[in-house]
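Progress note, project year one: complex with flavin mononucleotide.
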Amino acid sequence: MASPNGRPGPDLSVSFAGIPLKNPVIAASGTFGYGVEFEDVVHLDKLGGFVVKGLSKEPMAGNPPPRLYETPAGMLNAIGLQNIGARAFLSEKLPRLRELKNIVVIANVFGYTREDYETTIEILNEGEGIAAYELNVSCPNTAQGGMQFGCDPRALDEVVATARHRSQRPLIVKLSPNVTSIAQMARIAEEAGADALSLVNTFTAMAIDAETRKPRISNVTAGLSGPAIKPIALRMVYDASKAVKIPILGMGGISTAVDIIEFMLAGATAVQIGTASYWDPCATEKIVDELQDWCVQHKIGRLSELTSGMMID
Ligand SMILES: Cc1cc2nc3c(=O)[nH]c(=O)nc-3n(C[C@H](O)[C@H](O)[C@H](O)COP(=O)(O)O)c2cc1C
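Model obtained:
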């Protein structure tokens, strides 16, 4: 099949917030290390891109174990945002990533106060080779009493406006699904200056061992991800995409090419794959091949045309 760009095969490329991606498959933050750790198992240049582990202004040790627990069709995690810090990312990881050609690196940023986000972005602005920032607003806002930034409309507005002001790169705001109206939060992020949205982060959840009567995760509560959350994530991407004009990165339980097609039909321009990399470290790359085959089988010349293409009778 000849693609619209003249090359053989379907055209999988998408343009996301001004960033050209060779395909819509992006590895999700916290499930793909800093990219370099996957260099030997995945051809990084085959992916649309990858989002590095959440970065803070200082290094963080994270929570004590147990931090992961497998559930039916899903996974609980409370890693506690362990990371080497933004400065060490620039000096220890980014130089290697810059040697790799033809890859798109997105830096995930988090903080506990607005100033934390500001400082981390200022540090990262100094680094070359970062395509965009993804702002994780799902951490407790300690300056305002522990409510997550992403669950409080005013805090969300403030943190996005601050980040927009500091950021020298496209700003993707990663929304928390632990809200009543994802459409409202999507609109607030857009109005505060987000260039794009990504959703969903994990759902707050927990598990208890009935024998020991202890929580399965040391932090007691944790984030649920994986196929178990896919139908809810899909609905949230649909709701958000109807509420805003900026593009959406959809995620939550994607493990097959068909899942990607569903998220695109619901309104996503591109997608992220997280927990699937825990089950199969090569999942991201394999899904790109699957996507290519799916487009050939379904005579799709240009994949990007599927975005928001759900048909309702
Ligand atoms: C072990 C683990 C660590 C994660 N760490 C981060 C993180 O640092 N920052 C972030 O924004 N999201 C983080 N996430 C959330 C994922 O990026 C993704 O939003 C979520 O898992 C839903 O996608 P999935 O069902 O494909 O995993 C993490 C998820 C997992 C499973």
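The pocket of flavin mononucleotide is lined by residues 28-31, 53-54, 75, 77, 79, 81, 108, 136, 174, 201-202, 225-226, 229, 251-254, 273-276 (CB under 6 Å).
The radius of gyration is 19 Å.
No further modelling is planned for this target in the current period.
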